[in-house]
Write a structure and sequence with these properties.
With about 400 residues, this protein is α/β, with parallel strands linked by helices. The protein is about 25% helix and about 25% strand. It has eleven helices and 19 strands. The strands form four sheets. A seven-stranded mixed beta sheet has the order 13-12-11-14-15-19-16, with helices on both faces. A five-stranded parallel beta sheet has the order 3-2-4-1-5, with helices on both faces. Strands 6-7-10-8-9 form a five-stranded mixed beta sheet, with helices on one face. The protein is globular.
Length: about 400
């Protein structure tokens, strides 16, 4: 290549195949010496027009990308993708793994664009959830009454799996439409509700459209922090609803950030951190294997199955974890070295929030407040309860909370 940056063309193709491609994309594919793609995409190209060497993607795909491109360096290479390669597609994978390679991306209308066109839905008002190589539980966090969702399907069994999930979690009245082979000659629409969905298998190339309807009596889960305590399986080790909302406000999650939830208990802080935005990440650290398993179940049930659970005592279990943007300590504050280990792990600008109900841990937080500043507050919540034939207030144990942002000179 004489030191020049290699250029890889990434061409989107739809169910309409070669006939649906613009001339610019056709020209790239005609001239390519190497054609890389899934078997389905490669089969859409006429051999007479596209004589290049055809290479199907290996599995697993992502780790194979650098070596595969390097093996064909110096040859005109085109990668095929479904629809728009930059929308939940191969273009992102190539950009992240291909190294010193320039991408010439040539998009085709995405399946989401086609689906909105068929349904008459405004594209900008519809949320898209991908279930490609992701668990079905990832859909749960996006379910809200009256919400329209488009679901990128994993294959022929996705619709049946989604319908079963919706029935089981209180969304049986949700209308499901499966749009198959969008833009192609075999395009078809299947229509029904989750409660009576009849199709075990559909065409593998499909998109699901959901009109979300919550069943009467099903627990309502809002988009903000402070989910009902009943949403969690727990053994009493649960940051209660109103304290949880205040804790998330102090942690101030932002897209792409990573939280350590130390002393995870039931996992509620890490779960609600991740529910604030699809790009938020969290690691729950819990020494009890039973509670760690419970965190995993809660995370799946509340739509954030990607929450990572580390089983072991802190601070030892923190070793080797990726650098956090924020740390929450919900238990074990008196463990030797824990508070210092969490503070030291934070980069400048990182936030630490710690809650406690004991005087011993409160003394530790007061000391850190004197040393590092921040805010030291006491949270007290009272609930109305029956008192004989009347009503009175019952106050829960007050929670002392220290929150601070690490400065560049803090240690």
């Amino acid at each position: 290549m004489n030191g020049e940056i290699a250029v890889v063309s990434v061409v989107g193709i739809g169910a309409d195949g070669w006939d649906g491609l613009p001339e610019g994309s056709r020209r790239v594919l005609r001239e390519a010496e190497v054609l890389i793609g899934g078997p389905r995409q490669l089969a859409l190209l006429p051999t007479a027009d596209c004589p290049g060497e055809r290479i199907p993607w290996p599995s697993p795909l992502r780790p194979a990308v650098p070596g595969l491109l390097a093996a064909h360096a110096g040859r005109r290479t085109a990668v095929l993708a479904s629809g728009d390669p930059s929308f939940h597609g191969i273009a992102r994978t190539l950009a992240e793994t291909a190294g010193d390679v320039a991408l010439d991306v040539r998009p085709h209308p995405s399946s989401v664009s086609y689906a909105c066109a068929r349904l008459g839905w405004p594209l900008e008002a519809v949320e898209t959830v991908s279930l490609v190589a992701r668990p079905l539980a990832a859909l749960s966090a996006a379910l809200h009454d009256g919400r329209r969702l488009l679901v990128l399907s994993e294959g022929a069994g996705t619709a049946a799996g989604v319908a079963e999930l919706l029935r089981r979690t209180g969304w049986g009245g949700t209308r499901i439409r499966v749009l198959e082979q969008l833009g192609g000659p075999a395009e078809r629409l299947l229509d029904g509700t989750a409660a009576d969905w009849p199709h075990e298998r559909t065409d593998p190339l499909n998109v699901l459209a959901l009109d979300c309807v919550r069943d009467p009596g099903a627990l309502r889960l809002g988009a903000g922090p402070g989910l009902p305590d009943e949403a969690y399986e727990h053994d009493g080790q649960l940051t209660k609803r109103y304290v949880r909302a205040a804790t998330l406000a102090a942690l101030a999650p932002a897209p792409g950030e990573l939280l350590w939830d130390v002393g995870g208990g039931s996992g509620s802080i890490g779960i609600e951190w991740m529910r604030t935005h699809r790009d938020c990440r969290a690691i729950a650290v819990e020494k009890s294997p039973e509670r760690a398993a419970r965190i995993t179940r809660n995370a799946a049930g509340l739509g954030v199955p990607a929450l990572r659970v580390v089983t072991g005592p802190a601070p030892a279990a923190l070793a080797g974890l990726p650098v956090p943007n924020a740390v929450f300590i919900g238990g074990g504050l008196t463990a030797p070295g824990l508070l210092d280990a969490c503070w030291d792990a934070l980069p400048p600008g990182g936030r630490l929030v710690a809650n406690t109900v004991t005087l011993e841990s409160e003394a530790l937080l007061a000391d850190r407040y004197r040393r590092h500043g921040g805010e030291l507050v006491r949270l007290a919540v009272s609930a109305a309860v029956p008192v004989g034939g009347f009503t009175g207030w019952r106050t829960a144990m007050p929670v002392t909370q220290w929150s601070a942002t690490k400065g560049s000179s803090d240690s």
